[in-house]
Amino acid sequence: MKLLAIHWALIGIWALLTLASLVVFVVSKRSSKDMSELVQRTQSWWVMVAIFTLAFLVSQTISIIVFALISFLALKEYFSMIPTRRADRRVLFWAYLSIPVQYFWVYDHYYGMFAVFIPVYMFLFLPFASLLSQQTDGFLKSVGTLNWGLMLCVFSISHAAFLLILPATPESSAGGAGLLLFLIFLTQFNDVAQYTWGKLFGRHKIIPGVSPNKTWEGFLGGVATTFVLAMLIAPLVTPLDLPHAAAAGLLIAVAGFVGDVTVSALKRDLGVKDTGSLIPGHGGILDRIDSLTFTAPLFFHFTRYFYY
Questions:
Q1: Distance between CA atoms of 77 and 74, rounded to whole angstroms?
Q2: SS3 283
Q3: Are 267 and 300 in contact (CB under 8 A)?
Q4: Could you tell me the pTM of the whole model?
Q5: 218-231: b (≥16 Cβ within 10 Å) or e
Q6: What's 121's DSSP letter?
Q7: Dihedral pair phi/psi, residue 32, rounded to 5°
Q8: Under a CB-based contact definition with an 8 Å cutoff, are residues 295 and 241 in contact?
Q9: In terms of Cα–Cα distance, which of 126, 122, 113, 256 is closest to 183?
Q10: Contact in structure between 83 and 181 (CB atoms under 8 Å)
Q11: What is the pLDDT of residues 44-83, one digit of tens each?
């Protein structure tokens, strides 16, 4: 039953991607505007969905490793953008080493250490490791930069991986796998919905000093779309009842927007357009998971509080 629900959900994602690709193909052929970026984005989605599907179907362990790799690449992009002191280069080693340790707690189902390893142990250890260089100029900025990078790229994203190991419930046999699909799909669909509504009807800027292209119309249209979609999908792959599904839809939509503009503020501060160039049409890994950095921990704890 669990496998059947997950398989149908994956088939639905592939069908939606196929439909979107056909629409993009037709539009690109008929439009006089340059649609190369949109075509690139669609092609990249095929690769990303294929990798996600394979990892999902092969084994839970492989899926956890994939998320660890995503955290590594995102943290690498983050550190490549942020100016760091020469004295901090050795400290970066400990920051990267925290990734396999954090995901080991996920693999080991050890929620206690999973929840405190980065926000307690690493937050206390990294400042100590940094002060051993005895360079106090820029110390506070350096410590804040390192710790926030770990929170954003490792701790937050590891919550998505921890969803995988949540057990099935009487309400849903899909268990954590269904919850993860629900989270990933709605987070990414919310990004697309807000972008589409904004392009079609956007007139009023919502936060122009941070992200000039974000509009109230795009935000509200995306929130409404994700809200409705959450209530339709939740009964298929999650234990969420209708009120909780509606609340989760609102949570994911709003948190996804906040995560997006937070990373936009970071890029604007640093004077960069994208965090990287790994994904054609999208930018870097952190560009693609910026919304997930906020939706993953919030949705995880929302679900765990009510159902686990």
A1: 5
A2: strand
A3: no
A4: 0.91
A5: bbbbbbebbbebbb
A6: I
A7: -85, -10
A8: no
A9: 256
A10: no
A11: 778 888 888 887 777 899 999 999 999 999 999 999 998 8
**Cα dihedral angle (80, 86, 89, 91), rounded to 10 degrees?**
-120
**Dihedral sign for Cα atoms in the order 206, 212, 214, 215:** positive
| Tens-place pLDDT, residues 232-242 | 999 988 999 99
DSSP calls for 45-77: HHHHHHHHHHHHHH-HHHHHHHHHHHHHHHHHH
d(CA 296, CA 75): 16
Contacts of 287 (CB under 8 A, 6+ apart): 263, 274, 275, 276, 279
For the record, the structure tokens of 194 come out as 């807000």
**Amino acid occupying residue 226:** T
Q: Which amino acid is at 29?
A: K
CB atoms within 10 A of CB 272: 14
Residue type, 240: L
Strand partners for 172 = 169
**Residue 279, SS3 per DSSP:** strand
Return d(Cα 129, Cα 92) in angstroms, integer: 10
Contact at 8 Å (CB) between 254 and 232?
no
